[in-house]
From TrEMBL:
It comes from the Eukaryota. Pfam families: ATP-synt_C (PF00137). It comes from Arachis hypogaea. Belongs to the ATPase C chain family. One of its GO terms (molecular function) is lipid binding. Keywords: ATP synthesis, Cell membrane, Hydrogen ion transport, Ion transport, Lipid-binding, Membrane, Signal, Transmembrane, Transmembrane helix, Transport. Residues 12-52 form the V-ATPase proteolipid subunit C-like domain. GO terms for cellular component: plasma membrane; proton-transporting ATP synthase complex; proton-transporting two-sector ATPase complex, proton-transporting domain. This is V-ATPase proteolipid subunit C-like domain-containing protein. It is a multi-pass membrane protein. GO terms for biological process: proton motive force-driven ATP synthesis.
Amino acid sequence: MNPLIAAASVVAAGLAVGLASIGPGVGQGTAAGQAVERIARQPEAEGKILLIYLSSFFFESNPFLFIVFNRSNRIIGVIELLRQF
């Protein structure tokens, strides 16, 4: 494999993961802000609101973390390939 293509694919993968994380980041930030507003309006429901927010964060983050770890293993393989040259 051409080292230039391997290096470009590493950069492209980094940009793809970075740009793909903007939408979920904004969405989770909005959800966190709304959770804080709801707790401020209704303090007695704090436990339920936090449970719902944390559970949604857990379920939304798993696929993203899987993609990051999957890509990081491939990037490590590309880095080892580049070290051969």
